[in-house]
Every structure is written in structure tokens, then in C-alpha cells.
Amino acid sequence: MKNTTLTLLFLFIATNLSAQKFSSEEKKLIQSGDVKTMLKVIQITDEKELKILTSVSTDVDPKDALLPVLAERMFLSMRDPANPGIGIATPQVGINRNLFWVQRFDKVGEPFELYINPKITWRSALLRKGMEGCLSIPDISGEVLRNYTIQVAYLDKDGNFHEEIVEGFTAVVFQHEYDHLNGVLFTDRLKEQKALEFSEIDETVPLFVEKKLRKQ
């Protein structure tokens, strides 16, 4: 486990050293308002915005001076009183970079935390089914199957490396936002799971495992 953590740490160092600073277009968007102004949450109903939402994002330079501004404006967008959410990823505000906010329902006080260049490094075979929606997908919701437990690696807002196990509903939110960084929407997951077969663990709880095809 220790060797794995060290390998991940070295990988993160190498990745972050190669991460590019914000482009001039990204800087313009970030600086279109101050830290007290939310950014627009883009929608799948707009063709140009859909292209951003379905594109793969790249790592962000954790030392970029505009990162705190972007993070704060994203947070305000997520907590818009008119349509508050529990997570938001950078593509949802029009920037394809690896950054998102997630509410930690598994911690005291249920704080919102920022994740820089996050990676899911392991997923459990046990799945959890739950209702999901999205700030970028109006008027649609659905029951999505997600891994019940995941292992994650990321940098925090101060640039410190972390690796931890996340379970339950917080893991669901984390996976939802992580999908955004890879251009995957929860509606894509709904379509995918229709083609798969799952076994229910217990009728009293929404837990499942994927059925594997037997070798002939």
C-alpha cells in the first residue's frame, strides 16, 4: 500500500509539473467577474456548450494565480439559491480543466471541498443505485448505478497530496463530478447500464453487483 501511494505521489508530481497554465480564453472567462460573482452554468441544450460538456478535460496548474478565483466563482455557481447543487465540475462553467467541488456528507458538518486534478484509482465491485440529476441537464433525473466504494487521489486547495477511501453517497457525488472531467454525463451512464445485467444483493437495500458472463 505504501509503495502504491508513493507511486501515485510521484505520478501526481510529474503530472502537475506538466500541467499547463490557463489559456488566454480561459483567463478571460475566469476574470469576467470577481470572486463575489458566479459563473454561468452551461447547459446540454446549447450545441456549443454541449461540446464542452462532452470533451475530456486536462490537468490544471495547482499554482496558477487564477485558480482560487475560478474555484470561488464555481462555488457560488454551485450554491446559487435559485438552483443549489452538491457538486460542480469545471466543464460545467465552460472550462475543460480537472477541478471540482463536492459536498462531503461523510464528514462532520458536511463541508464542501475542492479537488484539484483528482483521480479515481480503484472502484469496488459493489454498486449502489440512486437518483441523480445535474445542474447542466435541466428537468431530467434517473437512477444511476455507481461503485459503492472508491479510492481517490487528489490535491487540495493548498496543493497538498491526498489519497483516501470514500464510500456511500459521497462516493456517488465524487463519481458524478469525475465523469464530467471525462466528458461523461449521468445520462450516458443511464444508457450504458441498460445494456448490462446486475444482481441485487438484498431487496431491502439498493446494492448490486454486475453479472459476469460465464465461460463456455
Mind sketching the topology for me?
Layout: H1 2-18, H2 24-30, H3 47-53, H4 67-78, E1 87-89, E2 99-103, E3 112-123, E4 127-134, E5 137-147, E6 149-155, E7 161-167, H5 168-181, H6 186-194, E8 198-202, E9 205-210
Antiparallel strand pairs: 1-2, 2-3, 3-6, 4-5, 4-9, 6-7, 8-9
What do you see in this structure?
With 216 residues, this protein is α+β, with helices and mostly antiparallel strands. The model has no long low-confidence stretch (mean pLDDT 92). It has helices spanning 2-18, 24-30, 47-53, 67-78, 168-181, 186-194, and strands spanning 87-89, 99-103, 112-123, 127-134, 137-147, 149-155, 161-167, 198-202, 205-210. A hairpin with a 5-residue loop joins strand 6 and strand 7 (161-167). Strands 1-2-3-6-7 form a five-stranded antiparallel sheet, sandwiched between helices.
Number of strands: 9
Overall 3D shape: globular
Estimated share of beta-strand residues: 25-35%
N- and C-termini, Cα separation? 36 Å
Low-confidence stretches: none
Give the proportion of residues in helices. 25-40%
Task: Give the count of helical stretches.
Answer: 6
Overall pLDDT confidence: 92
Radius of gyration using CA atoms only: 18 Å
Strand-pairing-aware structural class: alpha+beta
- Order of neighbouring strands in the sheet with most strands: 1-2-3-6-7
What's the helix-strand series?
HHHHEEEEEEEHHEE
What is the makeup of the main sheet? 5 strands, antiparallel
